[in-house]
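Hypothesis: this fold can be encoded by more than one sequence.
Test: take the structure tokens below, design a sequence, compare later.
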């Protein structure tokens, strides 16, 4: 799967992933109005609205980007209808040729972790039928429980041709409360990076890159430089661009000398672009076009800073 992601990045010239993290406040009335008229003020209406919102954005940006990253919490908050919208979103993105990174941040031990992996990256057997419950291509994984929590995901990745991104140094301001703590003279995030490299050593495909990647926030470029050296064959998913403060100039340390090795996420900065004064001329009806413009500007920013 990592080979497919790299191929898509090369095709589009955009190491960009759009975070499909819908909130009702981001969705124009022209979408919520019909949903409420049909379903009432219900969770079903919310599920319908967020899927229609996602579909509009995907239609506008699918030719520009290699991948999307739906954050499952934004769907789970609407219960079963929200999860149905999550699955519909995954399927629709696949129809449009996009790779889907499920931002699920799962992690447990033994059969529980295996079940999470089966749900998001693998399959389950119902009678004589094999079914993929959610069907993402990659998933984000929390390594806090150690190898017991990560290896079941790697096993499912091997059997189903999928990949994972392990949380190493996250973009949020309080990440350092634990991740920066020194253990035997090294910050914890470096030790996690070393484990990611170890977990991924036997999971490289013909591209030479591992199916086991890492999550490292754009808000910490110097740490990104250190982790790039620690994990030379592990792709880095970089959140924190845009709304969280990361800019193009922060991203160069995450890439290798060939301009590979990283894919940068932006969520609110793209899907809620129509609410930004910069794109006010798009209006409510042009919410998806505003997202397209935001993607094009992000691509230009990254290209200039990283490859210029």
């Amino acid at each position: 799967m990592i080979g497919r992601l790299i191929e898509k990045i090369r095709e589009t010239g955009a190491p960009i992933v759009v975070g499909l993290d819908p909130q009702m406040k981001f969705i124009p009335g022209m979408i919520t109005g019909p949903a409420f008229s049909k379903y009432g003020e219900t969770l079903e209406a919310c599920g319908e609205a967020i899927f229609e919102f996602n579909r509009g954005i995907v239609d506008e940006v699918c030719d520009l980007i290699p991948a999307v990253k739906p954050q499952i919490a934004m769907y789970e908050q609407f219960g079963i209808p929200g999860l149905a919208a999550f699955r519909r979103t995954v399927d629709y993105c696949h129809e449009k040729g996009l790779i889907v990174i499920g931002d699920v941040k799962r992690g447990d031990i033994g059969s529980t972790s295996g079940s999470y992996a089966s749900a998001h990256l693998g399959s389950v057997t119902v009678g004589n039928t094999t079914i993929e419950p959610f069907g993402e291509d990659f998933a984000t994984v929390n390594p806090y429980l150690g190898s017991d929590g990560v290896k079941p995901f790697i096993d499912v990745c091997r059997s189903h041709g999928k990949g994972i991104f392990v949380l190493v140094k996250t973009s949020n301001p309080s990440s350092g409360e634990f991740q920066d703590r020194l253990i035997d003279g090294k910050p914890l995030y470096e030790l996690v990076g070393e484990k990611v490299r170890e977990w991924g050593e036997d999971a490289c495909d013909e591209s030479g890159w591992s199916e086991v990647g890492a999550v490292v926030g754009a808000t910490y470029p110097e740490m990104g430089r250190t982790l790039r050296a620690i994990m030379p064959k592990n792709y880095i998913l970089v959140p924190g661009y845009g709304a969280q403060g990361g800019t193009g100039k922060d991203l160069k340390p995450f890439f290798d000398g060939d301009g590979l090795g990283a894919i940068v996420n932006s969520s609110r900065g793209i899907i809620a672009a129509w609410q930004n004064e910069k794109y006010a001329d798009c209006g409510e009806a042009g919410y998806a076009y505003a997202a397209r413009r935001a993607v094009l500007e992000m691509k230009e920013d990254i290209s200039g800073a990283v490859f210029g």
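The domain at 2-307 is CATH 3.20.20.70 (TIM Barrel). The chain has one domain: 2-307.
Hypothesis status: open.
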